[in-house]
Amino acid sequence: MSSRAAIAQVYGGDGRDLGGFYTSNATGPTVVLSPVSAPDAEDVVLFHEYAHHLMLQYFPVAYPVWYVEGFAELYATARFRRDRILLGLPANHRAFDLLLSQTTPIATLLTASVADLPRAKVGNFYGRAWLLTHMLNFTPSRAGQLTAYISAINKGTPPLAAAQQAFGDLDALQKDMARHLEARTTPYVSAVSPVPQDLKIDVAQLSPSFGATVLDRLRLLHPLSPEERTLILGRLYQAATHYPQDAELWALIAYAELQGDNTTASAVAADKAIALHPSFARALLWRGLADLRALGLKNETSEEAWKMARSWVVRANRADTEDPLPLFEYYRSFRRAGQKPSAVAVQGLAKATALLPQADRFRFAYAYELAQMGKFNEAAAYLRPIANAPHGGNRAQHAQLLIVELEKAAKGAANTLSHLQPGVD
What is the pTM assigned to this prediction? Predict the structure, then answer.
């Protein structure tokens, strides 16, 4: 983005202090950055956000909020030299927050969500998260404690209890953090890591229409009011008058119309995209979802009608077998129709969750299917990453409630899974 003001515009809400953000939903992951003037600051923000992707996409288990941010802060200071990588360098970008801000108490650090903190204390929380993560990784006497702590969290141990089991006395932990901060030197790793000779990097030049619509594309990643969606659609249709042969732009319009339940307009835009690019997987998907949404809105009961609409989703899957969204939508089409999903649909849902583990909708739906099979502990495990998400909000609270119910069911208590839904919405 051109500025932090642009970041706030696409983030929505209270994003005026953001230098960048990472988001991932069912459509895929995105990192948004703004240029800054401080040396290396772009790398700090980029590496922080990319570390979130590394952790949440490839190691998708439950992490406490402080460690999600501490891990990202630890990798934010990575530096690449000609023949080596430096990891664990001081978080100088957090120096003010660490040295001059009021210290976040250890109990708060271990249990708070970023959303719970006053704005003035967020910076210190991030700094203290880095400090604790760094200390646990670079202090020989605490080797193995972090692994034990994360393992306990994933077994359902409450955060403070898990910390006390793994770290010992929490007051002593906080004192050790103070000593680590005040030490004259900061330990780090200098790892020889030559670039693999067969590494191939593809850089794709984006279309002119993408540049013309990038702000609106990013806003569509977030919930929108009907008024804002109408404004965005007006700009997208205007762009389409300049780029009428751009299939990707017509597919974007189809997606935007779909978000407002404008199923007829969505189908028309998707048809234009498909005419230009017959094997465009997402265009085929939006075309199918327009029909599926229309059937749901009129409470259609004809199995044949649902099967015909579902055929578009099947075509989307065949066009791109590694896109998780058609797999999820194929499963969801049965739930929308009030039908029991086929075994193939549930298998597809499992694959979609594995391909994009950060998609909460996938996890909620798959947890429901696991619970229906009586696999309550496994279902709870799928929900724990959501329950511990740093910016999870209502979804995190809902997942926490469900985990309690699933754990009761696993122990033979009455099955009270009244809040667990099959992933229709």
Answer: 0.86
